């Protein structure tokens, strides 16, 4: 096996209960041949970071529709780095105002996908990011 | 941590990221993972390995969550003398045969376990295996055993009738049913009921639970209790409601009783041996097939396959030919390189 299967964590941090988008993305990434760990609703940043660690994922996708992204994303980034997973690629999807995009990217978010983004584009971006990582998920 | 020795050291020190990486290396069948696991192997053989299986939607993940919570809630002297046992969970979900992808959703039901450093949850995709487990699940369980978890819970793919691999890989097999899953004929078919050491009717608050228990009891009695297979263990049929935790403590006590029974009767060792034998045999089979493929001239396998498809050759005769190292006559015509071998 030259490239290990890409493992992605799809998580919904915060309190909004709309997970349709997260499920559509999970399904699309599955259909693109990835292993998608889906954690369900109302996850804290701590729960997300812990799951990312135990599952040793290449990519974390956060779905946020609540408007709390500027509080939640920095915390997830901070926790991932603190546990030695700074190399994990982070994507954000949901309702994100344009003026926050540069701020999120400055935090290290790879890309942000809003309504209307095609699932093919998202899968392609995720693959590209994940495969930029060393072929072995080596320690 | 790039070297197996460092990785092994970090895993032994209880570093969770190192453990997670080791599990990936094992799952991806990378040489570093095999090397590290070989070094850790002397530390294995201590954990209590429990398989949890049952049809999709019976509540396996929810019950595993509750069992882990109950185990973590107090000290069980048989598992660890002075603290609650460490619990590792391996949850297997199916890989899509079309895309090779998978959705691993067992964590959704296990959110209660977040934040507990004595718990480690790992999701695995079955990656083409059909027995309800992934090919490397057993090795992943070994790594968690070596990392010091006293209990390893393995949750299978939602299983139907034939996904019985788990029984070869666990000390105790818990089979989960729920009310309304089928009549008494379903219950006397061969397969999943036969591997149960403990049966749990989950969702026992739904109508039909009593009936499900009765049907299962009748089926087990009729079979002379083949499930537990051994005299001295009566397969208990328990009721639980995983969403409220009702009946879960009884399930945990039953698990521990089965563990004691295994140890007292010598079956602990026997099942451990069965587990090792299953893993050894699978590995041997893989390596032999790999070696065979590597030793073949290019295209021979494809040619033989084509002849089988054209019905010129039966699979049985084909395998005979393949193992005799005697290239099939057609293949000789097509591959001059093979003639030397054929003339030998």
Features:
heterodimer, A: 139 residues, alpha/beta, Rossmann fold, 5-stranded parallel sheet, 5 helices, globular, disordered C terminus, B: 344 residues, 3 domains, 8 strands, 46% helix
Q: The CATH topology of chain A is what?
A: Rossmann fold
| Spatial order of strands in the largest sheet of chain A | 2-1-3-4-5
State mean pLDDT of chain A (0 to 100 scale): 90
Low-confidence stretches of chain A: 134-139
Fraction of residues in β-strands of chain B: 5-15%
> How many angstroms separate the termini of chain A?
18 Å
CATH architecture type of chain A: 3-Layer(aba) Sandwich
Q: What is the H level of CATH, i.e. the homologous superfamily of the largest domain in chain B?
A: P-loop containing nucleotide triphosphate hydrolases
Assembly annotation = heterodimer
Instruction: Give the total of beta strands of chain A.
Output: 5
The second-level CATH architecture of the largest domain in chain B is: 3-Layer(aba) Sandwich
What does this structure look like?
The complex is a heterodimer of chains A (139) and B (344). Chain A has 139 residues and is an alpha/beta fold. Chain A has helices at 20-31, 45-55, 69-82, 101-107, 119-131, and strands at residues 7-11, 35-38, 59-64, 89-94, 109-113. Helices cover 41% and strands 19% of the residues of chain A. A five-stranded parallel beta sheet of chain A has the order 2-1-3-4-5, with helices on both faces. In chain A, α3 links the parallel β3 (59-64) and β4 (89-94). In chain A, α1 (20-31) packs across α5 (119-131) and α2 runs parallel beside α3 (69-82). The longest helix of chain A is centred in the middle third of the chain and has 14 residues, at 69-82. Chain A is globular, with a radius of gyration of 14 Å. Mean pLDDT of chain A is 90; it is low at 134-139. With 344 residues, chain B is α/β, with parallel strands linked by helices. Chain B folds into three domains: 1-43, no CATH class; 44-280, 3-Layer(aba) Sandwich (Rossmann fold), CATH 3.40.50; 296-343, no CATH class. Chain B is globular. Chain B starts with a helix and ends with a helix. The model of chain B is unreliable at 331-344 (pLDDT under 50). The chains are: A alpha/beta (139), B alpha/beta (344). β2 (35-38) of chain A pairs parallel with β3 of chain B.
């Amino acid at each position: 096996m030259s490239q290990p299967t890409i493992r992605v964590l799809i998580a919904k941090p915060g309190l909004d209960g709309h997970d349709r988008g997260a499920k559509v993305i999970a399904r699309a990434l599955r259909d693109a041949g990835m292993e998608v760990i889906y954690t369900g609703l109302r996850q804290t940043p701590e729960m997300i970071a812990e799951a990312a660690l135990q599952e040793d994922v290449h990519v974390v996708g956060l779905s946020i529709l609540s408007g709390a992204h500027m509080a939640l994303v920095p915390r997830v980034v901070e926790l991932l780095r603190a546990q030695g997973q700074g190399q994990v690629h982070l994507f954000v999807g949901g309702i994100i105002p344009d003026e926050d995009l540069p701020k999120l990217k400055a935090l290290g978010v790879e890309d942000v996908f809003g309504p209307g983004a095609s699932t093919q584009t998202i899968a392609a971006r995720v693959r590209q990011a994940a495969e930029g990582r060393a072929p072995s998920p080596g320690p | 941590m790039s070297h197996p020795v460092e990785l092994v050291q970090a895993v032994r020190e209880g570093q969770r990221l190192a453990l997670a990486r080791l599990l990936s290396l094992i799952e991806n069948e990378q040489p570093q993972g095999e090397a590290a696991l070989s070094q850790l192997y002397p530390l294995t053989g201590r954990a209590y390995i429990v398989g949890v299986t049952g049809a999709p939607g019976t509540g396996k993940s929810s019950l595993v969550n509750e069992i882990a919570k109950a185990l973590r809630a107090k000290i069980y002297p048989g598992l660890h003398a002075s603290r609650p046992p460490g619990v590792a969970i391996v949850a297997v979900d199916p890989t899509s045969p079309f895309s090779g992808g998978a959705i691993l959703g067992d964590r959704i039901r296990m959110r209660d376990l977040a934040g507990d450093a004595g718990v480690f949850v790992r999701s695995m995709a079955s990656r083409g295996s059909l027995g309800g487990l992934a090919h490397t699940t057993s090795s992943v369980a070994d790594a968690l055993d070596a990392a010091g978890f006293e209990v390893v819970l393995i949750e299978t793919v939602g299983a139907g009738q034939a996904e019985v691999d788990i029984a070869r890989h666990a000390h105790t097999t818990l089979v989960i049913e729920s009310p309304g899953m089928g009549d008494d004929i379903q219950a006397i078919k061969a397969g999943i009921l036969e591997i149960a050491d403990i049966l749990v009717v989950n969702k026992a608050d739904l109508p039909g639970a009593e009936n499900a228990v009765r049907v299962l009891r009748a089926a087990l009695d009729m079979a002379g209790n083949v499930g537990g297979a051994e005299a001295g263990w009566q397969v208990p049929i328990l009721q639980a409601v995983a969403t409220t935790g009702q009946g879960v403590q009884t399930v945990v006590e039953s698990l521990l009783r089965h563990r004691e029974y295994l140890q007292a009767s010598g079956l602990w060792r026997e099942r451990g041996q069965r587990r090792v034998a299953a893993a050894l045999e699978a590995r041997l089979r893989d390596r032999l097939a790999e070696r065979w493929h590597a030793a073949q001239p290019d295209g021979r396998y494809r040619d033989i396959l084509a002849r089988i498809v054209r019905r010129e050759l039966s699979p049985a005769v084909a395998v005979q030919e393949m193992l005799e190292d005697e290239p099939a006559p057609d293949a000789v015509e097509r591959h001059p390189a093979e003639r030397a071998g054929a003339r030998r």
